[in-house]
UniProtKB/TrEMBL annotation:
GO terms for biological process: cell division; chromosome segregation; DNA transposition. The active site is at residues 162, 186, 257, 260, 283, 292. The keyword Cell division applies. Transmembrane segments: none annotated. This is Tyrosine recombinase XerC.
Length: 311
């Protein structure tokens, strides 16, 4: 991938050499830490924007302090940046200066004291077990592509995988004897996640009867292949799920992460330990997993309000 933190053509002349060097250092650190290409691209956009602003204000990386970053954040707000966009830009700024501190380019991180914007507390969208069953059962198994899709979404719900993790799987990633799948998650961290029997059956049928019909001459090792024999993309996964959700007449706007959220919520409903769910999801922090306790709490409050005579 092209250097994700290289300023775009439109900002190249507006960024000073000290900032270009800082962005190169940051990008090298992101690569070394195994950051996803999408993260590098987003941080590249944010870094180049900050670098252009600082250059226009006569500031090198070493001259940027807390007050300067407050002005930078105010400018973003004035331009109408949404809270989540602001949060990402401030996170990338903290990460950029953290890298510069580690390399001795600046003495301290001026972004550490920047207050994060308050984000709306939206709960993840989940499907009921009956909706999931109807969605999966509505995917027939009469063609190779249908068999692929059934195996794909059975596995997505069975193991709670991200779309990126699904498309990164190879044939050897599924361990049938151990009933688990080896997943390369965020930050190139490997984890093993259990796979249920229905998913294993559909994957086995896909590998035996469908995948050979999809495979092209170049023998792509990807588990899930497109009709041209190439590895699926995340957009392919989202598009195919929309097709089958519409076919099953289930909720509108169903996306792969809804299957992941449903996986975690249904495990919690069934009494699974939150730490075990954290491990299966590949969350670095338990606080990320705790959002599902809020989902359960909201569900219980709704049931109480509907059923208790003095609610």
């Amino acid at each position: 991938m092209k250097n994700a933190l290289t300023p775009s053509q439109g900002t190249e002349t507006a960024v000073s050499e000290p900032w270009r060097a800082a962005l190169r250092t940051f990008d090298a650190d992101l690569q070394r830490r195994g950051a996803a290409d999408r993260t590098r691209k987003a941080y590249g956009t944010d870094g180049a924007e900050l670098a252009a602003w600082a250059t226009a204000n006569g500031l090198t990386p070493a001259q940027v302090d807390y007050k300067a970053l407050r002005r930078w954040a105010a400018r973003l707000s004035q331009k109408g940046a949404a809270p989540r966009t602001m949060a990402r830009k401030l996170a990338s700024t903290r990460s950029l200066f953290r890298s510069l501190v580690e390399h001795g380019e600046v003495a301290s991180n001026p972004a550490d004291l920047l207050p994060a914007p308050k984000l709306p507390q939206s709960l993840p969208k989940t499907l009921k077990p009956g909706d999931i069953e109807r969605l999966l059962e509505k995917i027939p198994a009469s063609t190779p592509l249908e068999m692929r899709d059934r195996a794909l979404f059975e596995l997505a719900y069975s193991s709670g995988l991200r779309a990126e993790e699904l498309v990164d799987l190879d044939v050897g990633s599924v361990h049938f004897d151990d009933e688990q799948v080896r997943v390369e998650g965020k930050g190139s961290k490997t984890r093993f996640v259990p796979v249920g029997e229905p998913a294993l059956r559909t994957i086995a049928a896909y590998l035996e009867r469908a995948r050979p019909a999809l495979q092209s001459a170049d023998q792509d090792p990807a588990l899930f292949l497109s009709k041209s024999g190439k590895r699926l993309s995340t957009s392919d996964v989202r598009r195919r799920l929309r097709v089958w959700a519409k076919h099953a007449a289930t909720q509108t706007g169903v996306h792969p992460h809804a299957l992941r959220h449903s996986f975690a919520t249904h495990l919690l409903d069934g009494g699974a330990d939150l730490r075990a769910i954290q491990t299966m999801l590949g969350h670095a922090s338990i606080s990320t997993t705790q959002v599902y306790t809020r989902v359960e709490s909201a569900r219980l409050r709704a049931a109480y309000a509907k059923s208790h005579p003095r609610a």
